[in-house]
Design goal:
Strand order of the largest sheet: 10-9-8-11-12-13-14
Number of helices: 14
Organism: Paraglomus brasilianum
Distance between the termini: 9 Å
Shape: elongated
GO molecular function: (S)-2-hydroxyglutarate dehydrogenase activity; NAD binding; phosphoglycerate dehydrogenase activity
Low-confidence stretches: 1-8
Strand content: 15-25%
Number of strands: 18
Mean pLDDT: 94
Number of domains: 2
Bound molecules: 1,4-dihydronicotinamide adenine dinucleotide, 2-oxoglutaric acid
Catalytic activity: (2R)-3-phosphoglycerate + NAD(+) = 3-phosphooxypyruvate + NADH + H(+)
Protein name: phosphoglycerate dehydrogenase
Radius of gyration: 25 Å
Domain ACT: 360-430
C-alpha cells in the first residue's frame, strides 16, 4: 500500500483495488492536465478529441468507472442505464444540464463540475463582443477579407457611459459586471435571487425592466425549465431600439427565429451568439441548415457575431478545469470524498494515518428511516473510528472508518451492507 505525506505524519493512500483496473473515458478534448492526474494514479485512460455518437458512447460507458465530458456529450437516463460500473462523472465545464443528474444519483454515480474556472474567460469574451458589436467590427473585418474598404462611423459608438444589462448575476455575470464598470459602462442586472451588487451595479426587479433599460443585454443563466426559451418575441420587443443582444449561456435559452425577426426589423442593431439550440459534435463538422433552418437565417443577418461555443475555451481555463475535476474524480474513487458533487451529498472524513489499520465504508443508499440503525448493527462488533452521513433529497451517503479490521471482516461487512434493502452502491477502500 502506498503512502502519501500529509503534514508531519504519513497519511494512508486508500486503494482497495488494482488501480490499473480503473478505466476512465475522457471525451471532447479534455485538457492534458486531467489526463496526467488520472494516469499518474495508474488508471487506464482512453482520451478522445470529440464527443462520441450515442451508440459508441453506450458501448464504451459499459466498461468504465469514470467518464469525463464537456458540454456536448448527453448522459441521458438511457445512456446511464448501461453504465453498470460507473462511479463518477466529471463535467470538465460549468454547465451540468447535459447530464441526467437525478438518474445518476439514483444509481449512486457522483457528478462533479468546475463551478468557476472558466468564468473569467467567458467574461472577457463578452467584453470583447460588446466593443466589437458597438463598432460593427465583425462586418468590417469580413469586408476587408473580401477586399472591400468601407470606412464608416455612422451608428458606431464608444461603450463608455452605455448601460449593460446582465441576466443572471452568478460567477460569470458578477465578474463581467466588474470588468464592464472598469470600461466605463453602467451595469444593471436581473437575477431570481436577491444579490449584493458589485461596484455601483444595480439590481432591477424584473427581466422586462432590465430589457427596456439597457443598451446591451447579455445572458448568463443556467439551463433550467424556467430559462428554456426565456428570450422570445415579447422579450425582444421590450428591448431598446438599436440595442444589442449577447448569449453565451445555453442555446435553448433563446428562440432564434424571434431574435432574427428582431434583428431584421431593426429593433436590435446586432447580436453575438456562442451557443445554439443544436451544435455540431466535433470540429470539422459544418454549421449549416442540417442543424435547423435557423442557421441560414442567422448567417444572413448583419452585425451578428457567431462563435463555436468557445466562451470557456482558453488555455488557462482548460488547464485549471482539468486539474480541478481530475482531482475531484480521483478523490472520489480513492477516498470516497464527494466534496464539490452536484448531485450527491457532500461527505468527507479526515485522512487516515498510514499506521492505522482502518477500512473506509462508502455507502450510497435510499434516504429512508432505519437504514443507519441497520448499518450500525452490522458495524457494532467493530470500533467505528469516525462516521459522517448526509442526504440530498431521496439519496443519502454514509462514510465510516472502521478500525482494526482484517480482510475477512472487510469481506463480511461488504456482503452485509451491500445486501441491505436500501443499498444503491457499497464500496470499501482500505
Ligand atoms: N459559453 C461557454 O463556453 C460557457 C457557458 N456557460 C454557461 O453559463 C451559465 C452561467 O454560468 P455561471 O455564471 O457560472 O453560473 P452561476 O450558477 O454562477 O450563475 C447563474 C445565475 O443565474 C441566476 N438565474 C437562474 N435562473 C434565472 C432566471 N430564470 N432569471 C434570472 N436569473 C437566473 C442564478 O440565480 C445565478 O445567480 C452556465 O450554467 C453555463 O450554462 C458557462 C461557462 C462557459
Ligand atoms: O468548454 C466547454 O466545452 C463547455 C463550456 C461551457 O459551456 C460550460 O462550462 O458550461
Amino acid at each position: 500500500m502506498t503512502e502519501a505525506r500529509g503534514g508531519s505524519y504519513s497519511l494512508k493512500a486508500l486503494k482497495p483495488f488494482n488501480a490499473g483496473e480503473i478505466k476512465v473515458l475522457l471525451l471532447e478534448n479534455i485538457n492534458q492536465s486531467a489526463v496526467d492526474i488520472l494516469t499518474k494514479q495508474g488508471y487506464q485512460v482512453e482520451h478522445y478529441k470529440e464527443a462520441l455518437p450515442e451508440s459508441v458512447l453506450i458501448e464504451k460507458i459499459r466498461d468504465v468507472q469514470a467518464i469525463g465530458i464537456r458540454s456536448k456529450t448527453k448522459l441521458t437516463s438511457r445512456v446511464l442505464s448501461e453504465a453498470r460500473k460507473l462511479l463518477a462523472i466529471g463535467c470538465f465545464c460549468i454547465g451540468t444540464n447535459q447530464v441526467d443528474l437525478e438518474t445518476a444519483a439514483s444509481r449512486g454515480i457522483v457528478v462533479f463540475n468546475s463551478p468557476f474556472s472558466n468564468s473569467r474567460s467567458v467574461a472577457e469574451l463578452i467584453i470583447a463582443e460588446i466593443v466589437i458589436l458597438s463598432r460593427k467590427l465583425g462586418d468590417r473585418n469580413m469586408e476587408m477579407h473580401k477586399g472591400i474598404w468601407n470606412k464608416v462611423s455612422s451608428n458606431c459608438r464608444e461603450i463608455r457611459g452605455k448601460t449593460l444589462g446582465i441576466v443572471g448575476y452568478g460567477h460569470i455575470g458578477s465578474q463581467l459586471s466588474v470588468l464592464a464598470e472598469a470600461m466605463g459602462m453602467k451595469v444593471c442586472f436581473h437575477d431570481i435571487l436577491s444579490l449584493m451588487p458589485l461596484g455601483t451595479a444595480r439590481q432591477v426587479d424584473s427581466l422586462h425592466e432590465l430589457l427596456a433599460s439597457a443598451d446591451f443585454i447579455t445572458i448568463h443563466v443556467p439551463e433550467t425549465p424556467e430559462t428554456k426559451t426565456m428570450m422570445g418575441d415579447k422579450e425582444f420587443e421590450c428591448m431598446k431600439k438599436g440595442s444589442y443582444f449577447i448569449n453565451a449561456s445555453r442555446g435553448s435559452v433563446v428562440q432564434i427565429p424571434a431574435l432574427v425577426r428582431a434583428l431584421k426589423r431593426g429593433q436590435l442593431a446586432g447580436a453575438a451568439l456562442d451557443v445554439y439550440p443544436k451544435e455540431p459534435a466535433k470540429n470539422g463538422e459544418t454549421f449549416t441548415s442540417d442543424l435547423g433552418d435557423w442557421v441560414d437565417e442567422l448567417r444572413e443577418c448583419e452585425n451578428v457575431l457567431m462563435t463555436p461555443h468557445i466562451g470557456g475555451s482558453t488555455e488557462e481555463a482548460q488547464k485549471m478545469i482539468g486539474i480541478e475535476v481530475g482531482n475531484a474524480v480521483v478523490r472520489y474513487i480513492n477516498y470516497g470524498t464527494s466534496v464539490g458533487a452536484v448531485n450527491l451529498p457532500e461527505v468527507d472524513l479526515r485522512a487516515i494515518e498510514a499506521t492505522q489499520k482502518i477500512a473506509r465504508l462508502l455507502f450510497v443508499h435510499h434516504n429512508v428511516p432505519g437504514v443507519l440503525k441497520e448499518i450500525n448493527e452490522i458495524l457494532a462488533a467493530h470500533n467505528v473510528e469516525k462516521q459522517y452521513s448526509d442526504s440530498h433529497g431521496e439519496i443519502a451517503y454514509l462514510m465510516a472508518d472502521i478500525a482494526d479490521v482484517d480482510e475477512g471482516d472487510i469481506r463480511n461487512i461488504y456482503e452485509l451492507v451491500s445486501a441491505c434493502k436500501e443499498n444503491i452502491s457499497t464500496r470499501i477502500v482500505y
